[in-house]
Structure formats: C-alpha cells, structure tokens
Amino acid sequence: MRDYEPLSLPNDSVTGNNFGMAARDRVSEYRRRMRKQGFRPLQVWVHDARTAGFREEAHRQASAIAAADTLTDCQTFVEAASVSWEDE
Question: What residues contact residue 12 under an 8 Å CB cut-off, 6+ apart?
C-alpha cells in the first residue's frame, strides 16, 4: 500500500506541455495550433558548413562578389528601369 499519491502532470494546452501525449500527437497538436494562427510549415535545406570545400567555395564566391564592383549592362538596365522608393 502506498502512503503517497502518484505525481499527476498537467495537460496544459496553453504552454504546450502535453506530457500525457505521444510525441507524434504533440507535434500534430502544435502544427494544428500554428496553422490556426496562420502559419504554415517550411523546410529549408542549407549547405553544411562542415563539409570539405565549403570554406574555399564560400571564399571564392565572396571574392567574386567583391571584385564585381563595376556595373554590367544588365545591372545598369535594371537600375534605370527601377523606381526609387523615395520617388513614389
């Protein structure tokens, strides 16, 4: 016979502490709440900076951007065709 009551954890839907729910049910409930607030899930894939060659490629691209300080014909056209935000 126990002389104590077992710990009862709350099912708190405000904070998301649904301890009695399985992980997939908590995730499903979280996604339902987020969708109700107007959000949608988004998965983004990015380069892994830990892979071999990432640092060199990032440096190559940064150097190419830094060296491109002169306007090309396409950039000149786009800038000429664009309206300044201050002009509107």
Answer: 18
